[in-house]
Amino acid sequence: MFKNKCIVVGITGSIAAYKAIDLVSNLKKKGAEVHCVLTKAAQEFVTPLTLRTISQNPVITDLFSEPITWNVAHVGLAEKADLIMVVPATANIIGKVAVGIADDFLSTLIMASKAPLLFAPAMNHKMYQNPLVQRNIAFLQTHGSFFVGPASGALACGTKGQGRLIDTEIIMAQVEALLVPEKPLQGLKILITAGPTREPLDPVRFLSNYSSGKMGYALAKQAYLLGGNVFLISGPTNLKPFPGVHCQQIETALEMHEVVMEHFPDSQIVIKAAAVADFRPLENKTEKIKKGKEVPCLNLTGNPDILLELGKQKQGQTLVGFAAETEQPLVHAQRKVKEKNLDFIVLNDLTQPGAGFGTETNIVTFVFPDGRVEKLPKLSKMEVAQLILAEIIRQRSGLV
Ligand code: PMT
Question: Using a 6 Å CB cutoff, which residues line ligand 1?
């Protein structure tokens, strides 16, 4: 996503300017070409030398300094930039851009560029609430600029309120979303399940499986980047959902069933990557089962098959399931895709290293209800997620 992308980071005069160093470092690590532009006030907080070292590019501080290349620097960079971000953005730069002032390098560059523009404001909370600042932000938003933050909390001026520069992680997520210009899932509610379920036996024990949630979380992130309004229903995992994805945590199959059924009617796309336990202990003991002479016998009962139920109720939704099988995988996947009334099923090849539970990669085959199969090579789970979504988009646009 970041490779070969030219990102301009404009830094303005706020104490939060030091956090821009971390942001530039993160952008570089992801493979972006980063150019930093410092306003005069920003140089009171951070030095061009620091940002030159981190960005590995010359830092621009002055509209009239000797150009490094033959072209007019602000025009050259304005044309080259895939994204211009202002981090931190003061009330001053927001106001200047809103009224069309171009009196230094950063404001002139912004004026000369058609690249997406992202502001991450940071200022005193009373300044942020000032109706003039709010009016300028609203005006810029209606004219296509993007804003991320500010966060609430302790401010450098000793007060508390909304005005802190938002976390780098959230800014990075917003950048990633802006670097994907096509938003084919815009306006669509996408329901994704991920991870295992836990079926309690007693207060200290449960039945579960090896699902890490990686596949489902990758799908949620990619669907969000493509513009979807993503609801991730997740069993217990160690993962953090991508910023912007709505996530609801559940534990048991029964809880997942309830939440999924609640979201289903107004969802347009449902992808069930969760490994839902088919059975649960008949009884969830209130006290810990004690060790005795006899080994206790476990009585199980069936959980609802959520996907089967969705297939019966579906009314125009695109419904995609996963299949994890250890014997005759294709036969079972072909049966499930029809039985559960799916648009297609993603079959994991559990016999191969690098596929299925817990891995960073997956080896999958798309199985369609008309008998077609499409085998994919070993890919990262992010790439598999992209291809699943591409197939859904293709089907929904009637291109099959
Ligand atoms: O989480 P990771 O570590 O990244 O691993 C990914 C994965 C292997 C868990 C995932 O890709 C996967 O295969 N998930 C589905 C596993 C599974 O439960 O397969 P199944 O063949 O038992 O179920 C078929 C489909 O029915 C699945 O979409 C499942 O979500 C759904 N199901 C199953 C049982 C049930 N009671 N309700 C359901 O909705």
Answer: 195, 211-215, 253, 272-276, 278, 303, 305-307, 321-324, 336, 348, 356-358
